[in-house]
Protein: Glutaminase
Organism: Coleofasciculus chthonoplastes PCC 7420
Amino acid sequence: SSLGLSALTSDQLNTLIAQAKVKCQGGQLPTYIPLLAQANPGWVAIQVQRIKGEGVAAGDIRCSFPLMSVIKPFVLLFLLEQLGTEAVFSQVGMEPSDQPFNSLAQLQADRGKPRNPMINSGAIALAGRLPGKDGASRCESLRQWLNQRSHSQLVLDEAMLQSVRSLPNERNQAIANLLATVGYLDCPEIALDTYNHVCCLSGTVTDLANLGMLLGQDSSMISPQHRRTVNDILITCGLYQASSRFATEVGLPTKSGVSGAMLSIVPSQGAIACYSPALDETGNSQVGLFIVQQLAQDFNLSSTPHP
Ligand code: GLN
């Protein structure tokens, strides 16, 4: 069949949420950011945005959450547009990684060059390239740029930022320091502060799905080439160690965050945003993975055209 996203209804999303709640149990909330540990692990929200047809939503769609690592593809997109492909990929690789998202050992083994922009090392290196004098102003430029080009209304969650800062993140600090030592960062403190800020850009699943449309559809505002680059890197790197398996089984460019946010792009059809805070061992939303996998199967979604 060649159903596609246009056949999807909110009743079907509600059924999927009910199935996900039975199927996905035993997930964990992260504890290293205290406010994230206070989320309700039972929350599930989905918003699907479509090029053809209205949006479809189900679940706890009023919940607002920090994007955390789901902002990483948009930092990449912004910098590709500002600096161009060559400048960006002189700072960061495009190779997948089989190590956890905050691996220091891998960065050391790679002599300080981040594997890709979707893990912490790569995102911190790119945060160091955002224009602006400090973390707050760099984050604000990115926020405005994204909101102006999409129908999203991202806001900076100040309480979340304080929570991120409340426990020292020695791993991210060590990553930033190594990047500075080898010359990929001028100022590790500002880069890390910028990274922490952009991870705390927040919204609802509707905002996230709207943001996803920047990657899901052609527009005069974003170079198609840059959009493609981001989607291609998401296929191989978006879900950390789970990326290759998901690419094989589902095949949609997808990014997860430690808040339980997840965004999947259905090229030329739309975007699927999920929020459900309980994570698997890799740090991906359990329910998010299940729902996108089901949708891809039931509606024949893929980033490669199907007959
Ligand atoms: N701020 C978080 C961190 O660096 C984001 C990581 C994530 O979402 N996986 O640990």
